[in-house]
Amino acid sequence: MNGNRAPAGSHYFCRGCGQPLPDSWHGQFHPECLKADKRRRTQEKRRLERARLQQWLQRQRCPQCGASMAVTPPHPGTVLPHRDEALEVSWEMAPPSDSSN
């Protein structure tokens, strides 16, 4: 290899779409393929992060009643508000137990 130039006669291909890259190109992706690859990797990282958070939340317990703190999806019949509308949520705590630890 001579500096930043590929050897004469060599052909490189995009790691995203597999199409040939221009001879003067120094990257491994076409610009649009690079953006798509970054978007895919970011989505996968966020999905794994959400899964780890869900697992952690399932291990957390309410000190009052011992219920799991995991976020549960709404009942299939529940109508969720449009994302511009406010969602009213009420939290009710179980009454404190009379037993002392």
Please describe what this structure looks like:
The chain is mainly α. It has a domain at 11-71. It is 29% helix and 0% strand. It has one helix and no strands. It has one helix at residues 31-59. The longest helix has 29 residues, at 31-59.
- The CA-CA distance between the termini, in Å, is 73 Å
Number of helices: 1
Q: Give a short account of the largest sheet.
A: none
Helix content: 25-40%
Number of strands: 0
- The sequence of SSEs as H and E is H
Whole-number mean pLDDT: 76
Strand residue percentage: under 5%
Give a topology summary.
Elements: H1 31-59
Q: How is this structure best summarized?
A:
The chain is mainly alpha-helical and 101 residues long. It contains one helix and no strands.
Question: Top keywords for this entry?
Answer:
single chain; 101 residues; mainly alpha; 29% helix; 0% strand
